[in-house]
């Protein structure tokens, strides 16, 4: 809905083509076993790619088509969709969706960079909002400091408070969405959308990697008892 809505004011033809592609391609190209009717058989990664294309179109077009609160709702729906789609994507690809080697290292490095960028955006917003040097200093220093403390307590790899995966992702979403809104308020909506898309992709990949690594750890009662005996 968001993509043709955003394109309609520029070209009704483009809006119609976008709608046809976003609905038609996933209908025609289907992985056997995923749906009952398979017009054209496609490998699993094609189906996953088409779903990702739809989600990418939703998060980018919603910012151009609708007010910010609605765009944020779309973003939340997309994040929830990714979370619920992961088991299906694993089944379609025949195993774990993980990044290996240099890709894994690059994604982990980008995760750290995005965290620093989020804090910098919060500081930038705090240093410009309102009037008066005192307010600028309080918000410019206090806002990223609060975000950093919350991240360290709940979302960091060695967080002091252990939350379930959904809770960790909620904390990350809170920090990153707030930073994205700050960038939008500062007059850089396009950059805010790009930042949000890149952060979402990075977070999804990192989450899949860490889940896969956890599943490889033997947590059966026998293995746990053996490890405890080794420690003792």
Automatic annotation (TrEMBL):
The reply on keyword ATP-binding is no
Keyword field contains Endoplasmic reticulum? no
Q: Which organism is it from?
A: Actinoallomurus oryzae
Q: Give the signal peptide as a residue range, or say none if absent.
A: none
Q: Which InterPro entries match?
A: DUF2568 (IPR021214)
Membrane spanning residue stretches: 12-31, 38-57, 63-84, 105-127, 133-154, 161-181, 187-208
What protein does this entry describe? Uncharacterized protein
Key words of the record: Membrane, Transmembrane, Transmembrane helix
Q: Which domain of life is it from?
A: Bacteria
């Amino acid at each position: 809905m968001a993509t043709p809505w955003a394109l309609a004011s520029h070209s009704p033809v483009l809006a119609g083509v976008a709608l046809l592609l976003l609905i038609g391609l996933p209908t025609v190209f289907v992985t056997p076993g995923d749906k009952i009717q398979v017009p054209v058989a496609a490998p699993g990664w094609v189906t996953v790619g088409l779903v990702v294309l739809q989600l990418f179109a939703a998060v980018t077009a919603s910012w151009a088509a609708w007010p910010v609160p609605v765009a944020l709702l779309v973003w939340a729906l997309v994040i929830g969709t990714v979370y619920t789609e992961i088991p299906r994507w694993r089944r379609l690809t025949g195993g774990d969706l993980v990044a290996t080697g240099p890709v894994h290292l690059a994604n982990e490095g980008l995760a750290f960079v995005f965290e620093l960028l989020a804090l910098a955006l919060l500081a930038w917003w705090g240093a410009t909002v309102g009037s008066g040097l005192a307010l600028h200093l309080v918000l410019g220093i206090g806002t990223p400091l609060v975000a950093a403390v919350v991240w360290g307590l709940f979302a960091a790899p060695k967080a002091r408070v252990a939350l379930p995966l959904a809770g960790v992702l909620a904390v990350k979403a809170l920090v990153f969405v707030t930073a994205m809104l700050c960038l939008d308020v500062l007059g850089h909506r396009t950059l805010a959308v790009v930042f949000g898309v890149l952060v979402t992709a990075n977070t999804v990949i990192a989450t899949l990697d860490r889940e896969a690594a956890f599943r490889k750890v033997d947590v059966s009662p026998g293995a746990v008892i053996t490890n405890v005996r080794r420690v003792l």
